[in-house]
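Sat 14:20. Reprocessing the chain from the morning session after the first attempt stalled halfway. Input below, unchanged.
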Amino acid sequence: MWQPTNTPEQDRWNSLQRLGERGIPAYPNRVTRTHTSAEAIRAFETLETVNPESAEGIEVTVCGRIVRQNLKGKVYFAHIEDGEGRVQLFVRVDNVGEDTYDMVKRDLDLGDFVQATGTMMRTRAGEVSVLVHELAILAKALSPLPIIKERVADDGTVERYGAFSDVEERYRQRYADLAVNPDTRAVFRARAATVKALRTFLDDAGFLEVETPILQPLYGGAAARPFVTHHNQLHQDLYLRISFELYLKRLLVGMYDAVYEIGRDFRNEGVSFKHNPEFTQLEFYQAYTDYHGMMDITERLVAFAAEQVTGSPVITFEGNVIDLTPPWNRITLRDAIRQQTGIDYVDYPEAPALHAAMKAAGIDAPPDSTWGKLVDTLLGTAVEPTLIQPTFILDYPRDISPLAKTVPGDDTHVERFEMFIGGMEMGNAFTELNNPIDQETRFLEMGRLYAAEDEMATPIDEDYLRAMRYGMPPSGGCGIGVDRLVMLLTDRSTIREVLLYPHLRER
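Finished this time. Tokens:
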């Protein structure tokens, strides 16, 4: 059973006992609300412009959390917040009576939820407020929220500070972070708006939203280590999906021309400022197009999302002004690496030679890396951080891209692009391989090329190959990291800031 552990909690516990002794429910079953804080203020201000006297007759019942309070003799001022904003309560003993006012003085604390009924008014200081006639507690906060202080900036805006000096504690107690930090709440409203914008764009473009299995008998569609679980009744190991790709492309075989899914992927890999074991992905696939078509739709999709969320396709991220307006920059991977490092990796077709060239250029990589992974290391270390403006990097090595068609006339590269914005990889796309014989050969090559424990090694999905043998239309597909896109649109430098509950080590 919980017990108070400090003086503030003990004081609140004592208030809870006093409320009980007086027969005042601290957690009542029923609540009444006629207006949100914003609706109440809007109703008053609208009528005030027409008839100021009648505006003060508007009766409302508002609810919210006490975020600021000031007791002056027989007058009590408080600001309460709900999901739409805040409104001031003006409480006088003459209006609510001695018993209620005694409860206000002794037993209301910052963080408590209350319900207030009264008429709208404007105070002498000019603030629209509720002149309270009835006040009831809705939920007693037994632990005080982190201390928030407020100050008025030179431009008249209210600044908050002092909330959570320990950033990690904000993530561990996201509920408290949300309660005291409007900026945090704004991030997750922007996140919801981002997902809505992605859906709107793809729905309007004729894509069908679908759901594919999260628990899969085989994992595939990406190069990542999966999480493994077990179904007891079926006596079968299952995998949390690392990608939607293979299931979505089965639907192209089934005669859907354009499909998409927004959902969770799970990868048993490292945690960083842009990686979390559980993350949100958008993947979309369209028949009768290729990676050029995917570039066109991707840049329009991202620009649309930016306009819906921020009001403009021009955003600011980590001090950089970024213009997401199409068309974006396009450059081959080979040219991008050559420009940044002076290394033309095509001149080093074997891994040892490429590794030596990288070492000579001061670029570290594990000596046992495959040739394709060395190329990927060159991209990640030398090129990616320089790609601030939106850029498509095209044509990747075949041996790290087993699901894409080869570039005509070049058997060593495939029609794949990754998109980069703000120095960060944001998405991945292919001209999808639809030749089942070629696909099976690629799977076998990957099995030989990568050791069983390597994250690039994936099992051969015989059912996917069977689906392809029924005939898959030529198509293009793209995957976009939704969390990273939200980071970009909210100017947040770590993925933890845009995940409500990021994964953290145990204490």
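The chain has three domains: 7-144, 184-328+390-497, 330-388.
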